[in-house]
C-alpha cells in the first residue's frame, strides 16, 4: 500500500486532534500550532482562535515560553530526541500553578519535508496532591499506631503486675493458680504484641516471629534453661499480620500448656515448635517429651487453653490433632493451603 499524500495525512491528523478528549497539539517544524484539541484550550483557558497558527511558546500570556520545553520540542523536530514524561510547572498570573507532563513525538508519515509534532499534555496536579495527602495520612496512621502499641504494652504490663500481686496475697491455692495462669497469658499476649510491633510490616516472617515469641515466653516461664529447652524449627514462610496473631496465640497457649503440665517435679525435657509449608499445605506443631497425655476427661485437655486453641484453629479453617508422642504429647494444626490465611 502506497503512502497517503501529505494533504490527506494532514487532514486525518487534524481530525484526530480535533476529536481528542485529552489535551493534544499538532505542531509544524517551526513549532507553531497547526491544530489543538478543544480539551487543550478548555483546560488551559485559551481562545482557540488565538492558538492555531501561533508558536506554542507564545500562547496565553507567555506562560508556555519555557526554555527547556522549547529545546525539547526543537530536538524532537530535528529527530534527535523523543520526549516521554517531561514534567514542568505551568505558572499563570493569578492562578494556581499546575504540574504538567508532556509526551512529544515526531510523526513519520512519509513526507520528511513537512515535520509534524504530536504533543500530548497531562495535568497531574490533582493526582500529586492526592498522593501527598495519602502519604500524610499514612504517616499519621503510623504515628497513631505506634502510640497505640505503646499504650497497649504499658497496659499489659500493669495488668500482669496486678495479677501477680494478687496471686501473692490470696490464701486459696486454686485462686492463686488461676491468677498465675492469667498472668502467664497476659505476659504471652504482651510478648506477642511486642513481636508484631517490632515487625513494623503488614506481613510477618514466621520463622523469626516464632523464634522471638518463644524466646520471650521462655524468659518469663523457664527458670532453668538447662532443665527445659524450647526449640523452634520453622520454614521461612510469611503471612499477613492478622493470621500471624492467631498462629502466635496457638503457639503461646500450647507452649505455656506444656511448660505447666508436661514436666512436673522438676523433670527435664524439651519443647519443640515446628512449622512446615509445602504444596500439600502447612503444618504447625508443638511437641514435648514430658509425661504424656492425660485422659480426655482431664482438666488439662478440656481447659480454657485447649478451648482457645480449638477456637483459633476453627478461625483458621484448620484441623487440630492431639497425638501421643510416646514420650510426651504432640499437638498438630494442619491446613491444605500452602500459605496460612489462603483459601483451601
Automatic annotation (TrEMBL):
InterPro entries: HATPase_C_sf (IPR036890), HATPase_dom (IPR003594), His_kinase_dom (IPR005467), PAS (IPR000014), PAS-like_dom_sf (IPR035965), PAS_4 (IPR013656), Sig_transdc_His_kin_sub2_dim/P (IPR011495)
Catalyzed reaction equations: ATP + protein L-histidine = ADP + protein N-phospho-L-histidine
Single GO MF annotation: ATP binding
SUPFAM superfamilies (alphabetical): ATPase domain of HSP90 chaperone/DNA topoisomerase II/histidine kinase, PYP-like sensor domain (PAS domain)
Keyword S-adenosyl-L-methionine: no
Location of the Histidine kinase domain: 147-339
EC number in record: 2.7.13.3
Keywords, alphabetical: ATP-binding, Kinase, Nucleotide-binding, Phosphoprotein, Transferase
Top EC class for this record: transferase
PROSITE patterns in the cross-refs: HIS_KIN
Key word Chloroplast present: no
Pfam families: HATPase_c, HisKA_2, PAS_4
Name of the featured protein: histidine kinase
Amino acid at each position: 500500500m502506497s503512502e497517503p499524500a501529505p494533504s490527506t495525512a494532514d487532514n486525518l491528523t487534524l481530525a484526530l486532534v480535533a476529536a481528542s478528549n485529552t489535551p493534544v497539539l499538532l505542531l509544524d517544524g517551526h513549532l507553531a500550532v497547526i491544530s489543538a484539541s478543544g480539551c487543550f484550550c478548555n483546560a488551559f483557558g485559551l481562545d482557540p482562535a488565538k492558538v492555531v497558527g501561533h508558536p506554542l511558546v507564545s500562547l496565553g500570556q507567555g506562560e508556555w515560553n519555557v526554555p527547556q520545553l522549547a529545546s525539547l520540542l526543537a530536538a524532537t523536530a530535528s529527530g534527535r530526541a523523543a520526549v516521554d514524561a517531561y514534567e514542568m510547572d505551568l505558572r499563570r498570573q493569578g492562578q494556581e500553578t499546575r504540574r504538567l507532563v508532556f509526551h512529544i513525538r515526531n510523526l513519520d508519515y512519509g513526507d520528511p519535508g513537512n515535520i509534524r509534532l504530536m504533543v500530548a499534555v497531562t495535568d497531574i496536579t490533582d493526582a500529586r496532591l492526592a498522593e501527598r495527602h495519602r502519604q500524610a495520612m499514612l504517616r499519621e496512621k503510623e504515628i497513631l499506631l505506634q502510640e497505640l502499641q505503646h499504650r497497649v504494652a504499658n497496659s499489659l504490663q500493669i495488668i500482669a503486675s496486678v495479677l501477680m500481686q494478687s496471686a501473692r496475697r490470696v490464701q486459696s491455692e486454686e485462686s492463686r493458680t488461676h491468677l498465675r495462669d492469667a498472668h502467664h497469658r497476659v505476659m504471652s499476649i504482651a510478648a506477642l504484641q511486642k513481636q508484631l510491633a517490632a515487625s513494623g510490616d503488614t506481613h510477618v516472617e514466621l520463622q523469626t516471629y516464632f523464634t522471638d515469641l518463644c524466646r520471650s515466653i521462655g524468659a518469663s516461664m523457664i527458670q532453668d534453661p538447662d532443665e527445659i529447652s524450647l526449640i523452634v524449627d520453622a520454614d521461612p514462610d510469611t503471612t499477613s499480620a492478622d493470621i500471624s496473631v492467631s498462629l502466635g496465640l496457638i503457639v503461646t497457649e500450647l507452649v505455656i500448656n506444656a511448660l505447666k503440665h508436661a514436666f512436673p517435679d522438676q523433670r527435664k525435657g524439651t519443647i519443640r515448635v515446628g512449622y512446615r509449608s509445602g504444596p500439600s499445605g502447612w503444618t504447625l506443631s508443638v511437641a514435648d517429651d514430658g509425661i504424656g497425655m492425660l485422659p480426655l476427661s482431664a482438666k488439662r485437655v478440656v481447659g480454657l487453653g485447649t478451648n482457645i486453641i480449638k477456637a483459633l484453629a476453627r478461625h483458621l479453617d484448620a484441623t487440630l490433632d492431639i497425638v501421643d508422642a510416646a514420650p510426651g504429647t504432640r499437638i498438630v494444626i494442619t491446613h491444605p493451603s500452602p500459605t496460612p490465611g489462603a483459601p483451601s
